Amino acid sequence: MKFFIDFEATQANEIISIGVVSETGTTFKSLVKPQLSSISPYISQLTHITEEMLSNAKCLDEVFDEMYDWVTRQCPDLVAWEFLSYGGDEKFVKASLPNIHTRQSMILAAMLIATMQDGYKDIKKFFQGSISLINAFNYVENLEKEQRHDPLEDALMFQKVYEHIQANEPPVNSPAH
Known about the structure:
Elements: E1 2-9, E2 15-22, E3 27-31, H1 41-47, H2 51-55, H3 60-74, E4 82-85, H4 90-95, H5 103-115, E5 117-118, H6 120-126, H7 133-141, H8 151-167
Parallel strand pairs: 1-4, 4-5
Antiparallel strand pairs: 1-2, 2-3
Helix pairs in contact: 3-5, 7-8
């Protein structure tokens, strides 16, 4: 089963928010309290996530344990898990490894690092050049939406774009920027 995933992170790449959508449309989202770094004003402005919001968030182990349970309910066969991201998001998992201590969290982190596919490569090929997620989404949905850098919203946009490129021929006049 495919899971479209997006992370928001500190400038040190430590995860502060996760959004996931399964290919069947079920979703998972959580804030994550960073342990090794703090959120900069730039990241806070970009993501609309504040220090106050993160002070009440769960630690990465708790969130990964919950996400592991959620993913397992969607697809009990770990071998069938396929994680897709828009870009090399496994770097965020790698940077957050010092915060992972529980068995389920370690299994999820290992699966994310080992199996995460960069869907951006397929999208770039389809649009015949580099294109932002929001521009690809706006093309696919014929919208003029602005990106808010919400991980669940981004995962949902990525799913729409990815499914579109799997089912359609590339555009004649590419909107790639």
